[in-house]
């Protein structure tokens, strides 16, 4: 088991430079979304975007550690998010559900696929 300090050093030094920067972007965006939704009651639909971003952040941190589960989880989550968004696009739910970073996540998934051979 690694210590927190070793984990943070590995998250920054092991992957290419793009990965820690994107990880920082995920963390900041997740904190911002949670802060902007803090006035809403917790088990509400408004928290769905924060839940998606938290899942994206967890999987990206796994990808920063060059773990295949992190990369595959991030790609699968992007596919599921796109499927949910496209399934409700023409219904009245599209005003309620908005994917916080679907296009950006698709772009980051391409980066993950490009570096996938380096993952353990």
Describe the structure.
The protein has 120 residues and is mostly helical. Helix content is 66%, strand content 0%. It has five helices and no strands. Helix 4 packs antiparallel against helix 5 (102-114). The longest helix has 20 residues, at 68-87. The protein starts with a helix and ends in a 6-residue tail after the last helix.
* Overall pLDDT: 85
Total E-strand runs: 0
- Helix % is 55-70%
Global Rg: 15 Å
Strand content: under 5%
Helix/strand-derived class? mainly alpha
Helix count from the secondary structure assignment: 5
Helix-strand sequence: HHHHH
Features:
single chain, 120 residues, mainly alpha
Summary, kept brief:
The protein has about 120 residues and is an all-alpha fold. It is about 65% helix and about 0% strand.
Please specify the SSE layout and strand pairing:
Blueprint: H1 4-13, H2 18-36, H3 48-64, H4 68-87, H5 102-114
Helix pairs in contact: 2-3, 3-4, 4-5
């Amino acid at each position: 088991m690694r210590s927190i300090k070793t984990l943070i050093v590995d998250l920054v030094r092991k992957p290419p430079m793009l990965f820690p920067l994107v990880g920082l972007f995920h963390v900041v965006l997740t904190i911002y979304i949670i802060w902007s939704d803090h006035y809403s009651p917790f088990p509400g639909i408004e928290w769905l975007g924060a839940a998606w971003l938290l899942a994206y952040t967890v999987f990206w941190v796994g990808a920063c550690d060059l773990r295949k589960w992190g990369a595959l989880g991030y790609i699968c989550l992007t596919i599921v998010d796109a499927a949910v968004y496209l399934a409700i696009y023409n219904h009245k739910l599209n005003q309620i559900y908005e994917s916080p970073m679907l296009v950006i996540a698709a772009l980051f998934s391409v980066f993950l696929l490009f570096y996938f051979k380096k993952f353990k």
